[in-house]
Specification:
Structural class: mainly alpha
Number of strands: 0
Largest sheet: none
Order of helices and strands: HHHHHHHHHH
């Protein structure tokens, strides 16, 4: 049977339009302006970790505060020039999230099979993380606020009210624990350097690698504590114990030698923040 000319023509027209849209999207993703905006997302993440580390250090010394995403961004909002930084971080995080989405489609062409799937999952996960952070920056930039600890506890209580939700929370807790272990591995093995286009020469390069090593291990440890607490809170049906990163760090402070441990993690988180700022320049994109 001969193909229907009108059908064939229409199909080719749709395919051509799809190809043009795909090419335009890839061209936009590869543009210098978009790359610079996406690199700003790493700076935003660095600022966030620096602030969380600073608050955590204050907690280790007996102070108060909320050592989590909302606490750090709230502190930034109240500082001189905070409004400008909030918009900068909001735009940077969203641009980086979009860049990670583009990597799902355009960044895996040289890969195959399992490597392609793994890369897409990583890019998707990072897109979700940066989109979430960017949304929080945007909320504060528009004059709003949030309470990460309260929101986490409320969400946990809602999920713990049924068996399926509890199972999901345990799975999430184990997943967070696994991510924490991965961060520790990346820091200890220094495999994070593979994502850098170059290492600064001489002493500066040594400092950058040291910041990354300490930072990745510290963040992995903090995530590990967070994952364990989430699993324990779910098993004991105690949502008040599931209060996110702030709760995890404060729980760490209550342990033997906890102030010293929290102080070390705080310094490590600040090191990770500084590394992220440096990463904005040297990240391979």
């Amino acid at each position: 049977m001969k193909p229907n000319p009108s059908t064939s023509k229409g199909s080719n027209g749709v395919d051509d339009a799809t190809d043009r849209a795909s090419d335009a999207a890839e061209e936009a993703a590869n543009s210098k302006g978009f790359e610079l905006a996406a690199r700003a997302g790493y700076i935003a993440a660095g600022i966030l970790h620096l602030l969380i580390g600073f608050i955590a250090l204050g907690l280790a010394r007996g102070g108060s505060g909320s050592a989590d995403q909302s606490g750090a961004i709230g502190q930034l909002a109240g500082s001189p020039g905070g409004a400008v930084l909030l918009w900068f971080c909001f735009i940077g995080c969203l641009a980086l999230a979009l860049f990670q989405v583009s990597e799902i489609f355009f960044g895996v062409r040289a890969l195959s099979g399992k490597e392609k799937l793994t890369s897409r999952l990583k890019s998707g996960g990072q897109a979700a993380v940066y989109a979430t952070i960017g949304t929080t920056f945007g909320r504060y930039a528009l004059g709003g606020s949030s309470d990460s600890s309260s929101e986490t506890s409320s969400a946990s209580a809602s999920l713990m009210s049924n068996p399926a939700g509890s199972a999901l929370l345990i799975a999430v807790g184990v997943g967070i624990l696994a991510v924490g272990g991965y961060f520790i591995y990346r820091g200890a093995s220094r495999s994070f350097t593979k994502k850098l286009s170059a290492i600064p020469p001489a002493g500066l390069g040594t400092a950058v690698v040291a910041l990354g090593t300490v930072g990745y291990i510290a963040k992995g440890f903090a995530l590990g504590v967070l994952g364990v607490l989430l699993v324990v809170a779910t098993v004991t049906n105690n949502p008040e114990e599931s209060t996110g990163l702030d709760g995890a760090l404060k729980t760490l402070r209550e342990q033997p030698f906890g102030a010293w441990l929290l102080g070390a993690v705080a310094i490590g988180l600040m090191a990770y923040g500084l590394f992220m700022v440096v990463r904005s320049k040297y990240q391979r994109m």
